[in-house]
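Pipeline run #58 for the internal structure catalog. This entry was flagged by the ingest filter as a single-chain record with no existing model, so it goes straight to prediction. Upstream metadata was stripped on purpose; only the residue string is passed forward. Reviewer on rotation: M.T. Logging verbosity set to normal.
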Amino acid sequence: SLAYLLLRQNQGEEAAQLLESLLEVESGARDDRLLLAKVYARLGRSPEAERHFKELLDGGSGDEEVLLLLSVLYLSDGSYQDAEEALRKIVALKPEAVDGYYYLARLYRERNLPLKARDAYEAAAARGWSLRLATEMASFYEEQGWVDEAASVYRRMLAQDNGNEALRMKLVSLYYRAGLTRQALAELQALRGSATEPGKIDLAIARLLLSEERAEEAAGVLEPLLAREPGNTAALYLMANVALLRKKSGEARQLLNLIPAATEEFEGAALLQIRILQEDEGPAAAVRYAIALLADQETRRPLFYSVLAELYRDLGQTEAGRQALDEGLRSYPDNPELLYDYGLFLERLGDRPGALEKMEQVLEHDPLNASALNFIGYCWAERGENLEQALEYIEKAVALQPADGFIRDSLGWVHYMLGNYEEARYQLERAVVLVEDDPTIYEHLGDVYLMTAEPVKAGEVYRKAMELYEEEEKREAVRRKLDGLVLP
């Protein structure tokens, strides 16, 4: 009892000492030894925790609980082989055990063995379906780009909670990201009748229709909504996009002018105004509008400095672009998005050192900025420099955004540069599933297939890269790789 009291007071070391003294008197006290092992695990003293868990197992207490705790300890220490051995014992001793298969699935995810992870998750679900398990399974399947499997899990969850709007919206999002607009629309239509806020569903439907440039259908959804809610700024913004698709830019600007500066949609509306001006009147008109936005404190936004800099770059006025970004940083000195945009601006000018310096500044203000971590890591990998640190940065970026195919490409490429060709292959094959139209990813995958002695596959992806590249110089570089292939 005193040991438990010490634990509640966060005095783990004192509790451990007390339990050790108890075991000197009663060495066979299972509960005391199990508690002591748990205390050592919590304190991060893995060798002591492992010793006591093993003594429990050697003493004939080879039950599921001890094996499971031991496997979790091994997992946390990265001792995957020992963890798998312990978990395999659990499922052998108790085939109906859910936790054994669940932690096996987690172990296989850590080891980048997705097919084994899938089988273990499904075995766990067959023995004990739960919301926690289902949510993790769906997330894992989405990371892998397995749309059908993820959708199946969401549908099973909805079968038990059909009125869960948030859950159905996850299914909509899954279909949308996979380019399955018809299925996404069907789910939204199914949701609309029971939705607590049907107007939000109408907006989601309109966005999907606009993504396919189905302007008249989108208008058919938005016009009744605006008749009911004439001040709905999200609907006004979408209706402006409808007007653009109808080639009525003047009408689009009138609708955008109705969106107040204090609303969430204002920034997007201003950007759309800039795009219209640039297309209709040229970049100089867009520059004047952006300057006017920045001159008024009510309409000023950090992003508009970045946009102004890009407009100046389009006009060949790169120094004016730098000045715009410098002015932005004077107004918003700690803004990581503005620093990141400055880094991209410098990169486009060919100033790689300056770009890297800005990206490092991004991380000073936002250490978990996945885009900056990826930028720096990829730049190092391209040059074959700081490869171990590049791997660390990119792995952190992947953990933050596991479904980003471009970051997966970076991870594959840094593994390629390190000579880890099988891991590079795995990551790049995932990247092309997540991003199907990027030629660089296909070229990278072709380079990896060459190193894994798969010239036929290399030829296939090189040809895909050539189809997608717009620059003749890059197409020619890939053509030379194709010509150099030695096919069986």
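catalog note: The first helix runs from residue 2 to 8.
catalog note: The radius of gyration is 28 Å.
status: ready for reviewer M.T.
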